[in-house]
């Protein structure tokens, strides 16, 4: 069934209070729920409590047991006719958490019992109106075997605990803040705690706990630092204070997504909590910091103010991603963080926008809401908030966010509520800007600069267009904020940046005082999530790559310089590769630049990004061209790469920005050196692998070796496997590195790895490490035999029977068939059709595959 935004109706019944009693056991858990229900407005509709796979063992109304004819089940939901306006409903159900392979609702992971309710998992735990606009006060009692489950956690504050006569123990937690059921959580298990505390701005002390398996305790320090920094940052930047006496985080090994912001009890995929230098890369450390912050920030943007319905998902996710991005930028480098975020946006969201699964930031319809936790909702949603913040400026943006939190605290709000708070609090008209929420697709902007020597003026002509997306053939012009500067060639400076608002299909802007034609720097800082085409020459781009004072624009000029050469070469044009080599050399030796920035700027665009720049993607030609340019860069600057690689070797490990930057540059230098084909390349990579005292350098060396054939490659993979085979998160890297390798046999290796004894479909991280990474490896996945497509389709079919949510996430790479030649497109469609023909296919996979075939 298709759910539509336009069909929203307020709930028929509210549930101001709920009392839950869990008799926990992996094989047989009983859940008694007592709901106070209240009729919402004048109507005569029955009470409908959602349920998914639940059997009511008892149903009582106001204490009276109902006969089986007094209630009905309708598609899993419990329907009870009620006469009065307020009643007490009691139900009893029984579950087997250990058999819950979907990892939604109450499930078992590594000996723990835990929950995941967003978006619609609570209905797998008890009968309840499972929609985010029903807010309730929760009281939760848990009872379990104290030997296996000594720790019992739930939302809010612990208020009572004790032992029962039969040797079991129990605890009661209450949460004073009314919340939607998707924020419900409990955890039971044998957990150790990294305990700390934080004093809020009003002087309240909050007890912080990060709960993990005892052996993992030494790996929780970074997460705890990130949590305390997040709490302080949200007070300082948004005026938001934490509101309960305790804040707990639990790490679990089996988790469908990154983490979950359950009120006062965040539950995390362990990969976003655990980090130490031996097993975590700098990227992993940053992931921990960013996700801890993200979930913490949800306490206000998501929990205190929640979503009215799931079409408003970006209200909490887009805003919270924006908040965590800015937090991470403040903790490290603004320039590098922006470059990383834009890279992710282009790789994931621009591709989504250009394909069959394109949807607006506020979708109009869905079949399975789990399929809408997308880069569009999250990352493009964050870009929308960023544009509003840019147009308003910091003070007025803060006034808007203050108004939003004040006005909607305790409510289930909409994206429109947010925009209106920005308009009223910030004093701006966002009329046309609202189209960013409505129209799917990435706007294209063409910028042409015309210089008039006689009047010493330049005219900047901007034209916008937006390709059609499914269900939206015609697009209206967007309001696009473009930070722009015009550089004098002599002196290499500009007269000040301007924020140009492009609101019409075509618009021109005139600037005076230019005796000579300036160089255009546009969409600085990536101020709008658009694709810009300019008429800038390679010389102009080289100029900007050396002189632009906006770090993102400088990076972008360098990337565009490389893209032009590579795409030109693939098209058989005569291209000037020497200009790329020269720009890279000048960047590398610039003493004023941050090494982390240098590493970003000189890295060749990914094969996938190059594919996005072509009318039809030719994976083989792209690989060959990119590989050749990488080799030339390696060869021509070989002494430089050797020098950098030697010079950036640290004596001892540190997580300082300088040390992280040095590692990033060192790893980039290694890639260049090995790509040059020098005879000792593999040996240099192997010694980096062997000598490293940290995973950042070890994993990068392994990845570099994995791209080519050498004895060192096999040796390093063996050593890595034997060293980390008992550490799941690190073994994931072993699978992932091989699946992502630019090696001609990757497709066959992935097939073998799928049969490896350590491969399992029951752990989502492991599945993503192998098949998720492989789906992102353009050259290997699009092997012209179609083997890659078949492997991923086989995995989707098998995984769908266990975990449809995670299976559905593997579909998008197959859905991009339009972008490839006819032979590949036919093979991809064939696999999609084969999946669709599977009997008993889930709603999740059916929606993604069905849309992909349209
Ligand atoms: N709200 C969580 C977060 O962004 C993600 C939950 C995703 N769950 C799901 N079933 N789609 O932090
Ligand atoms: Zn989130």
From TrEMBL:
All copies of domain Peptidase M1 alanyl aminopeptidase Ig-like fold, residue ranges: 441-534
GO function terms (MF aspect): alanyl aminopeptidase activity
Record-annotated Peptidase M1 alanyl aminopeptidase C-terminal domain positions: 540-854
Alphabetical UniProt keywords: Aminopeptidase, Hydrolase, Metal-binding, Metalloprotease, Protease, Zinc
Record-listed E.C. numbers: 3.4.11.2
Record has Chloroplast as a keyword: no
Reaction equation(s) it catalyzes: Release of an N-terminal amino acid, Xaa-|-Yaa- from a peptide, amide or arylamide. Xaa is preferably Ala, but may be most amino acids including Pro (slow action). When a terminal hydrophobic residue is followed by a prolyl residue, the two may be released as an intact Xaa-Pro dipeptide
SUPFAM superfamilies: Leukotriene A4 hydrolase N-terminal domain (SSF63737), Metalloproteases ('zincins'), catalytic domain (SSF55486)
InterPro entries: Aminopeptidase_N-like_N (IPR045357), Aminopeptidase_N-like_N_sf (IPR042097), PepN_Ig-like_sf (IPR038438), Peptidase_M1 (IPR001930), Peptidase_M1_dom (IPR014782), Peptidase_M1_pepN (IPR012779), Peptidase_M1_pepN_C (IPR024601), Peptidase_M1_pepN_C_sf (IPR037144)
Family note: Belongs to the peptidase M1 family.
The protein's name: Aminopeptidase N
Native species: Sphingobium tyrosinilyticum
């Amino acid at each position: 069934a298709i759910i539509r935004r336009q069909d929203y109706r307020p709930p028929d019944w509210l549930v101001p209070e709920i009392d839950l009693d869990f008799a926990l056991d992996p094989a047989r858990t009983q859940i008694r729920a007592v709901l106070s229900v209240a009729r919402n407005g004048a109507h005569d509709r029955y009470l409908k409590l959602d349920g998914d796979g639940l059997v009511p063992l008892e149903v009582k109304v106001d204490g009276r047991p109902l006969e089986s004819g007094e209630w009905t089940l309708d598609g899993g939901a419990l329907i009870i006719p009620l006469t009065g306006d307020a009643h007490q409903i009691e139900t009893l159900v029984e579950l087997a958490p250990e058999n819950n392979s979907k990892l939604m609702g109450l499930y078992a992971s590594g000996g723990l019992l835990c929950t995941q309710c967003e978006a619609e998992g609570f209905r797998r735990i008890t009968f309840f109106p499972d929609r985010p606009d029903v807010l309730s006060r929760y009281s939760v009692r848990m009872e379990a075997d104290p030997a296996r489950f000594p720790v019992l956690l739930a939302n809010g504050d612990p208020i009572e605990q004790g032992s029962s006569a039969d040797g079991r123990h129990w605890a009661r937690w209450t949460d004073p803040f009314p919340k939607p059921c998707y924020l419900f959580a409990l955890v039971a298990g044998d957990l150790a705690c990294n305990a700390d505390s934080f004093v809020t701005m009003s002087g309240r002390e909050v007890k912080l706990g990060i709960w993990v398996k005892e052996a993992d305790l030494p790996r929780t320090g970074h997460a705890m630092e990130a949590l305390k920094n997040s709490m302080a940052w949200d007070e300082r930047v948004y005026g938001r204070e934490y509101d309960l006496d305790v804040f707990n985080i639990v790490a679990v090994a089996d988790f469908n997504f990154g983490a979950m912001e359950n009120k006062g009890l965040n539950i995390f995929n362990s990969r976003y909590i655990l980090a130490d230098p031996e097993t975590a890369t700098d990227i992993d450390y940053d992931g921990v910091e960013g996700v801890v912050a993200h979930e913490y920030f949800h306490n206000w943007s998501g929990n205190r103010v929640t979503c009215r319905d799931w079409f408003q998902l970006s209200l909490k996710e887009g805003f919270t991603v924006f908040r965590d991005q800015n937090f991470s930028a403040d903790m490290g480098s603004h320039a590098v963080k922006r470059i990383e975020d834009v890279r992710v946006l282009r790789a994931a969201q621009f591709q989504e926008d250009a394909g069959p699964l394109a949807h607006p930031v506020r979708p109009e319809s869905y079949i399975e809401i789990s399929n809408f936790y997308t880069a569009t909702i999250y990352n493009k949603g964050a870009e929308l908030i960023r544009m509003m913040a840019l147009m308003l400026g910091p003070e007025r943006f803060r006034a808007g966010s203050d108004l939003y939190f004040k006005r909607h605290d305790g409510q289930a709000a909409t994206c429109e509520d947010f925009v209106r708070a920005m308009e009223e609090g910030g004093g701006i008209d966002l009329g046309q800007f609202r189209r960013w929420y409505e129209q799917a697709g990435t706007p294209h902007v063409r910028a042409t600069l015309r210089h008039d020597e006689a009047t010493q003026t330049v005219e900047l002509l901007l034209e916008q267009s937006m390709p059609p997306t499914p269900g939206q053939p015609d697009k209206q012009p967007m309001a696009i904020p473009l930070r722009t500067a015009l550089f004098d060639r002599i002196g290499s400076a500009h007269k000040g940046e301007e924020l140009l608002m492009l609101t019409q299909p075509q618009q021109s802007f005139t600037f005076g005082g230019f005796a000579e034609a300036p160089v255009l720097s546009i969409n600085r800082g990536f101020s709008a999530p658009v694709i810009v085409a300019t008429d800038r020459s390679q010389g102009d781009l080289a100029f900007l790559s050396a002189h632009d004072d906006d770090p993102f624009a400088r990076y972008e000029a360098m990337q565009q310089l490389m893209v032009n050469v590579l795409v030109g070469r693939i098209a058989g044009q005569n291209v000037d590769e020497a200009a790329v080599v020269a720009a890279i050399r000048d960047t590398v030796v610039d003493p004023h630049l941050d090494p982390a920035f240098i590493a970003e700027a000189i890295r060749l665009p990914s094969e996938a990004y190059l594919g996005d720049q072509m009318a039809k993607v030719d994976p083989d030609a792209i690989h060959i061209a990119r590989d050749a340019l990488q080799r030339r860069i390696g060869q021509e600057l070989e002494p430089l790469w050797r020098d950098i690689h030697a010079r950036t070797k640290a004596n001892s490990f540190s997580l300082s920005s300088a040390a992280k930057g040095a590692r990033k540059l060192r790893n980039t230098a290694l890639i260049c050196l090995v790509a040059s084909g020098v005879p000792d390349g593999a040996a240099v990579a192997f010694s980096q692998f062997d000598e490293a005292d940290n995973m950042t350098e070890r994993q990068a060396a392994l990845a570099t070796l994995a791209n080519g054939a050498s004895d060192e490659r096999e040796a390093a993979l063996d050593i890595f496997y034997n060293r980390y085979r008992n550490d799941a998160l690190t073994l994931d890297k072993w699978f992932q590195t091989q699946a992502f390798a630019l090696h001609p046999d990757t497709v066959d290796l992935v097939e073998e790895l799928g049969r490896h004894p350590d491969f399992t479909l029951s752990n989502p991280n492991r599945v993503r490490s192998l098949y998720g990474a492989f789906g992102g490896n353009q050259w290997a996945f699009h092997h012209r035999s179609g083997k890659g497509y078949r492997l991923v389709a086989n995995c989707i079919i098998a995984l769908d029977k266990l975990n449809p949510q995670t299976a559905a996430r593997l579909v998008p790479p197959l859905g991009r068939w339009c972008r490839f030649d006819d032979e590949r497109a036919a093979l991809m469609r064939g696999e999609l059709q084969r999946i669709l023909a599977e009997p008993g296919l889930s709603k999740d996979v059916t929606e993604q595959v069905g849309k992909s075939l349209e």
